[in-house]
């Protein structure tokens, strides 16, 4: 293990910062781990950092050690109501970049107002097949990157798996090709809408509403009363859609960024 600092103190004992693995740091005090720092890559190439420490001094030392070695830009997520954690990251040089709302979406058609919400003529809603789904995913990603950029997508969008779980996808098809999909994220307690996407040339036709209507109705029939979702507040179309179907905002996360190419010395 590599020791990089020896001077931080949390309770009268020297704290050592050690890089214990590629992308992982420990703060050690009197042979006990008193803080951890990690980095993780996202599908769009961004690097996210996280630190878990009890003491401010330990957090600052971990941040200093990590930022001295990592290239910019760097990102982190903080619950907007966690003012102390946000202050720690701001002290390290991070600034707020965007807000994502955490929403709870009812599945009951009587509450969402979606009812049957039929797709437009010529569009069918149903289960996914891997080949056409991969083709649609490539198109969607290219369209997002050409428009707002993939970094504006939800920060928790999951990496593309080598073999996608097709049971989590509901797709819209027209003229023999997929034009939109809803993906449910893999969670243990409550279903989560991971992504709602429609190809740019097929938007404003009610395809997104029809996809959500099918997915939410299927969950409602299984006895699931609500699903969670994250919505970027700058995505006004998505915010309007979720507000219209009765989504309740339960909290928000701030994405903080440390820009530039230099490293702290």
TrEMBL record:
Keywords (alphabetical) are: Acyltransferase, Transferase
Q: Where does the source fall among the domains of life?
A: Bacteria
One Pfam family cited in the UniProt record for this chain: Acetyltransf_1
Which residues does the UniProt record annotate as the domain N-acetyltransferase?
123-265
The record ties this protein, via InterPro entries, to: Acyl_CoA_acyltransferase, Bact_Acetyltransf, GNAT_dom
Per its UniProt record, what CDD domains does this chain match? NAT_SF (cd04301)
Check the record and name the SUPFAM superfamilies matching this protein: Acyl-CoA N-acyltransferases (Nat) (SSF55729)
Instruction: Give a yes or no for keyword Transferase in this entry.
Output: yes
Concerning PANTHER family, the annotation shows: ACETYLTRANSFERASE, AMINOALKYLPHOSPHONATE N-ACETYLTRANSFERASE-RELATED-RELATED
Name of the featured protein: Ribosomal protein S18 acetylase RimI-like enzyme
What organism, scientifically named, is this protein from? Nonomuraea angiospora
Organism placement in taxonomy: Bacteria, Bacillati, Actinomycetota, Actinomycetes, Streptosporangiales
């Amino acid at each position: 293990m590599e020791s990089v600092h020896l001077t931080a103190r949390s309770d009268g004992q020297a704290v050592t910062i050690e890089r214990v693995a590629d992308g992982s740091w420990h703060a050690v005090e009197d042979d006990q781990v008193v803080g951890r720092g990690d980095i993780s890559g996202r599908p769009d190439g961004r690097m996210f950092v996280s630190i878990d420490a009890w003491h401010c001094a330990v957090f600052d030392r971990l941040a200093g050690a990590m930022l001295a070695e990592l290239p910019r830009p760097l990102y982190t997520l903080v619950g907007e109501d966690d003012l102390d954690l946000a202050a720690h990251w701001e002290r390290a040089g991070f600034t707020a970049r965007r807000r994502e709302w955490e929403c709870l979406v009812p599945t009951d058609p009587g509450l969402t107002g979606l009812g049957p919400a039929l797709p437009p003529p010529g569009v069918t809603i149903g289960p996914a097949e891997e080949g056409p789904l991969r083709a649609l995913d490539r198109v969607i990603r290219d369209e997002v990157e050409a428009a707002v950029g993939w970094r504006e997508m939800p920060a928790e969008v999951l990496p593309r798996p080598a073999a996608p779980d097709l049971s989590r996808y509901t797709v819209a098809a027209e003229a023999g090709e997929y034009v939109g999909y809803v993906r449910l994220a893999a969670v243990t307690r409550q279903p989560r809408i991971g992504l709602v996407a429609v190809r740019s040339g097929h938007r404003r036709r009610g395809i997104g509403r029809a996809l959500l209507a099918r997915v939410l109705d299927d969950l409602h029939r299984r006895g699931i009363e609500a699903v969670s979702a994250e919505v970027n507040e700058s995505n006004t179309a998505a915010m309007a859609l979720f507000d219209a179907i009765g989504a309740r905002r339960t909290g928000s996360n701030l994405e903080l960024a440390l820009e530039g190419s230099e490293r702290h010395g």
